[in-house]
Amino acid sequence: MRMRPTLTWIPTEDLPPGTTDLEPVADALGTGGVLVLSGAGISTESGIPDYRGEGGSLSRHTPMTYQDFIADSQARRRYWARSHLGWRTFGRARPNAGHRAVAAFGRHGRLSGVITQNVDSLHQAAGSEGVVELHGSLDRVVCLSCGAFTPRRELARRLEEANVGFRPVAAAINPDGDADLTDEQVGDFRVVPCTVCGGILKPDVVFFGESVPPPRVEHCRELVREATSLLVLGSSLTVMSGLRFARQAAQAGKPVLIVNHDPTRGDRHAVTRIALPLGAALTAVAGQLGIPVDD
């Protein structure tokens, strides 16, 4: 029987409540060398819902798994129909105050790097440089047979041409760019193959149940080793792909600071969890440090 990936986490221990004290974050950024690890929560103010917060997409939507995508042509049809529709909205999202604050911290030399679990490229759009996309990016598509990469906009054009008149109304858009559609709305949506070899196309993202490429993991581990502290923004750290870096930092005696409204799987490794909206919190810290944040 195929094992399903971990999608949710329920605390099994008493965790300290979140605070509203931003001083530890301001102190860390004042010292510099901070490594940012961001999750879906930093993009909610850009109109992209998160997975596990109040009203998160996991309450109504099960993300596509790598195993289902590979094994089932009908699953791929559903995925690409929903993702094609979601891309129209997802691609119009713009950076919010949280993304802009992170970019400002980087410009002023307070960060050692940025790792994001998000696939929306909003950190880069805000001006952050050298962002490590832990789970890849929806901007790219890869062929599972020949490995050729294609810009997502090119695939979107091909899908438009193959599915003239496909204009269903989605119930919601999810953090992975997937839209909520019924099987009836998906209908006979046509999936297009790789233009190089005719193989199966997949977004260049790490699906649930798929492993992050080992060289990427090792690069992130090196960033943790070089950092003075780890600042987690908007991630529940439910999945191991992000949690392992919080554990690594804590084991190395480096402060782990979390800004997230709800408790996280990494709270016991953190010196504090600040339960405030990210945009306002990071903008306030920037103000304390005299760092301007672009509008």
Can you walk me through this structure?
With 295 residues, this protein is α/β, with parallel strands linked by helices. Helices cover 34% and strands 14% of the residues. It contains ten helices and nine strands. The strands form two sheets. Strands 3-2-1-7-8-9 form a six-stranded parallel beta sheet, sandwiched between helices. It has a three-stranded antiparallel beta sheet with strand order 5-4-6. The protein starts with 22 loop residues before the first helix and ends in a 7-residue tail after the last helix. The N terminus is likely disordered.
List keywords for this structure.
295 residues, alpha/beta, 6-stranded parallel sheet, disordered N terminus
Summarize, please.
With 295 residues, this protein is of the alpha/beta class. It has helices at 23-31, 66-71, 73-90, 97-107, 122-126, 152-162, 183-186, 214-226, 240-251, 278-288, and strands spanning 34-38, 111-116, 132-133, 136-143, 149-151, 201-205, 229-233, 256-259, 272-274. The protein contains ten helices and nine strands.
Shape: elongated
Secondary-structure content class: alpha/beta
Radius of gyration: 19 Å
Number of strands: 9
Strand content: 5-15%
Q: Residue-averaged pLDDT, rounded?
A: 89
SS field, number of helical segments: 10
Estimate the helix proportion, in percent.
Answer: 25-40%
For the biggest β-sheet, the strand order reads 3-2-1-7-8-9
Chart the SSEs and their pairings.
Layout: H1 23-31, E1 34-38, H2 66-71, H3 73-90, H4 97-107, E2 111-116, H5 122-126, E3 132-133, E4 136-143, E5 149-151, H6 152-162, H7 183-186, E6 201-205, H8 214-226, E7 229-233, H9 240-251, E8 256-259, E9 272-274, H10 278-288
Parallel strand pairs: 1-2, 1-7, 2-3, 7-8, 8-9
Antiparallel strand pairs: 4-5, 4-6
Helix pairs in contact: 4-10, 8-9
